[in-house]
Design goal:
The protein has 9 helices and 13 strands. By secondary structure, it is α+β, with helices and mostly antiparallel strands. Residues 1-12 have low confidence and may be disordered.
Length: 346
């Protein structure tokens, strides 16, 4: 039976095994073959150069490819050519920087095993000098000064990497001449006086008798499908989605307007005022609406007030009533912008 020394006991892996510190070190091919080392250097350099070219291709694709152009890809179907090219060039460029750094560390940086003995938690007075020595040694062993091609291409790739991010940030909003600004667009939805409230998905109009006390339904305006077909996007849905709940009228503590309910039926925006997550988790007993993203909780019986979580504003309430045929309709648009706060919000 092998004897285990106290110093190596925590490294022992079973009968016949050597302590980790005593396992013979196996040199890498790049340590013994200069040609292999040069080949690894060229590989790392090539990946950095390719990353540079991909970042340049990102800018070219952003400028040259029409945002309305679509291409067909098996399994995925039709996708935007601009979106696909921007994602591929930026993603592959960032991946290549990481892959090149890993290859550099695995093949060219010193491959040594270091055993550090445990010591007291308090740092000795010489810790500053040791840290400086470790930094100096690491800078030398990394080969940053030795491998000039790697250093130059790394600097080039890292210098170009932020440019696509700046382009993306710049493109978050560009207001065409004569078009409404973001404050106007975000402050209004499809809801207007007389808009019928329909069930989201089936688009069936709702009557008060369709919703029992304690019930909750996700709903949208009746003209939403036509708007989505015309625009080809979900922007209108993201602003107009609501939850419709019913409680006993005497359970309603407050509302955001006078008589904004109909026989205990209340309608609130479905978009959390914290980070814009859609909400449909309703607790009948407490009348609380819970956001699944960050657990903001709103009391729908008390004007959508925040009772817990990071949200800072109540859930906007939609004033509702019924039309001549008895269907639930909106009495007006939301009185305040829905969703998270934004700079231009009054």
């Amino acid at each position: 039976m092998n004897e285990i020394t106290p110093a190596a006991e925590h490294h022992y892996d079973g009968p016949g095994a050597l302590p980790v510190a005593d396992v013979p070190h196996k040199a890498r091919l790049t340590d013994t073959d200069p040609q292999a080392a040069r080949r690894a250097e060229r590989q790392v350099t090539f990946m950095f150069i390719l990353a540079i070219l991909l970042f340049i291709a990102f800018i070219v694709a952003y400028i040259a490819v029409d945002k309305n152009t679509v291409v067909y890809i098996p399994v995925f179907g039709e996708v935007g050519a601009s979106t696909m090219l921007l994602g591929l060039t930026l993603g592959l460029g960032a991946f290549l920087i990481g892959a090149a750094a890993i290859q550099w560390a695995k093949k060219l940086m010193p491959d040594v095993e270091v055993v550090q003995e445990r010591h007291e938690m308090a740092s000795p007075e010489s810790a500053d000098h040791e840290a400086l020595d470790a930094y100096t040694r690491g800078k030398t062993e990394s080969g940053f000064a030795q491998y000039k091609m790697i250093r130059r291409t790394l600097i080039g790739a890292m210098a170009l990497f932020p440019i696509p991010l700046v382009v993306i940030l710049r493109d978050l909003w560009v207001t065409p001449p004569g078009s409404p600004g973001p404050a106007t667009i975000l402050s209004h939805t499809l809801w207007r006086k007389g808009s019928r409230i329909v069930v989201d998905g089936t688009y069936q109009p709702l009557k008060a008798s369709d919703l029992p006390v304690g019930g909750m339904i996700s709903a949208v305006p009746a003209d939403l499908p036509a708007v989505e077909d015309a625009t080809g996007n979900l922007d209108a849905r993201g602003k107009a989605a609501i939850v419709v709940v019913r409680m006993a009228p005497n359970e309603i503590v407050s509302q955001q307007g006078t008589n904004w309910d109909y026989q205990g039926i209340l309608a609130f925006s479905k978009i959390c005022t914290h980070a814009g997550c859609p909400i449909s988790l309703y607790e009948q007993r407490t009348h609380h609406l819970l956001c699944p993203c960050h657990q903001s909780t709103f009391d729908l019986a008390d004007g959508g007030a925040v009772v817990f979580g990071p949200a800072a504003r109540p859930m906007p309430q939609l004033p509702i009533g019924v039309d001549a045929e008895g269907y639930l309709v909106a009495q007006a648009d939301f009185a305040v912008p829905i969703g998270p706060s934004f700079w231009e919000r009054g």
